[in-house]
Amino acid sequence: MTERTQRSNITLAFITLVGVVVIVSVIGFFTFRKGTEIIQGQAEATEYRVSSKVPGRILKFFVSEGDQVREGDTLAILEAPDVVAKLSQAQALEQAAQALSEKAEKGTRAEKLQEAYEMWQKAKAGKEIAEKSYQRVNRLYEAGVVSAQKRDEAKAQYDAMTATERAAEAQYTMAQNGTQREDKLMAQAKVRQAEGAVAEVSSYISETYLTASADGEVTEIFPKVGELVGTGAPIMNVAQLDDMWVTFNVREDYLKDFHVGGEISAFIPALEKDATFKVTYMKDLGTYAAWKATKTTGGFDLKTFEIKAKPVQPVENLRPGMSAIVKGLE
């Protein structure tokens, strides 16, 4: 091979290598340069769960998934026989406490009062007889007819009947005065206690009727008719479609296009139209969220922020779960 041919081959190889480097550079420039970015978010709505304070069995549903409900509408009824039984017990205790209170207020029955009076009169008669007997025996003692022992026995009998008469009089006076003030207050307190127990159990009975706490749409119903549900177990979800927003996860190198109070335009593919949203919330998702390094080594990490934005005007047919896309970010 001649020297001239060798030089030609070397020149051709060099030109080919330069061409390959240029082509790779052009491809890399167009492939890896930073282009227009899009951010996809999702529509969400306020939801509340309907649940019961008492365990029971689902007796009946008045709504189905997708139904619109108004505040105060009855959604379902639970069957709770044990709560009904407790209500009967509480009502019986209330009636007993009320009867005791009425008895305390009325005081002693007429029959008891008459009995106490008769016992007092009986004791008075006994005292009078004992007094007369003592006086006769005492005169005989002074005349020297009877011994001192006989007089002492008559005196003891007279003193005993006097004490009996005072005790009978006190019983009659107490019967006249009726129940003590403290006993009346205690009876009234027991009535209030029983009324509180009835009110408490009645509130549990009312909890077996599940009602809507706000307007909305039934999105999910969890149990079936006849199933048992526990205390606080969710029965259904209700979405308030008049309180909706869109949530985006935005890397911080694109946050210059977002600020609280600012407006953004987003395309909703399901509705095939654009809508304007106002940013109302911005928060760092934390170190556990997605991040991106600015350099392979060194530099700093780009964190992700959660952005919430509400429609400036109501968007017809916007539903939770629909996508919203923000384009044109660089």
Automatic annotation (TrEMBL):
Q: Which SUPFAM superfamilies match?
A: HlyD-like secretion proteins, Single hybrid motif
Which parts of the sequence belong to the YbhG-like alpha-helical hairpin domain? 85-203
Q: Where do the TM regions start and end?
A: 12-32
Q: Does the keyword Ion transport apply?
A: no
Residues forming coiled coils? 83-110
Among its keywords, does the record have Transmembrane helix? yes
Alphabetic keyword roster: Coiled coil, Membrane, Transmembrane, Transmembrane helix
Gene3D superfamilies tied to this protein: 2.40.30.170, 2.40.50.100, Helix hairpin bin (1.10.287.470)
Matching entries from InterPro entries are given as:
HH_YbhG-like (IPR059052), Single_hybrid_motif (IPR011053)
Name used for this protein in its record: Secretion protein HlyD family protein
Q: What is the protein's species of origin?
A: Phocaeicola salanitronis (strain DSM 18170 / JCM 13657 / CCUG 60908 / BL78)
